[in-house]
Amino acid sequence: MENLMHSKVYVGTYAKYNNGSIKGDWIELNNFSSIEEFYEFCSELHSDETDPEFMFQDWENIPSELISESSLSENIFSIIEKVSHLDYKTLEAFAAWISIGNHDIESDDIDSLFESFEDDYQGYYNSEEDFAYQIIDECYDLSDFVKSYFDYESFARDLFMSDYTYENGHVFRNS
């Protein structure tokens, strides 16, 4: 996901492939703002065919949920646009959140997807236990004496059984 701004796809056609040719070209997706614009360019690239059936023979830096040999998700251009405005840490967190698999980046509304991410993201922590320490400090008024006896490890385990997910240092609320 971090390299999505540098995503590209090798576009050929099934007709050329079936006739023994893999002629096509690498196309950088960040040069387009919509699927229509992309397909128009592909049509110009393969203008020697009347109605080219595009074949995506290879790709780089594109999540597998967004591409297959015969299709490219319409969402990819909106996602590229959105992630281009994110700083590295936020982009890393978004990639971790997507990898959890609770959301469908291929078909979910992009604005809703990013709103859900912002709602779910709790921050970066060195461990689940560090997150538990913060929850106790922010939500409970425990004396230092009681805190010294509190089992943070067990509390963290309980938090992450159902309410939260820890992925590559990032904590997300399960929604």
From TrEMBL:
Q: Which domain of life is it from?
A: Bacteria
InterPro entries per the record? ArdA (IPR009899), ArdA_dom1 (IPR041895), ArdA_dom3 (IPR041893)
**Could you tell me which Pfam families the record lists for this protein?**
ArdA
Its name, as the record gives it, is: Antirestriction protein
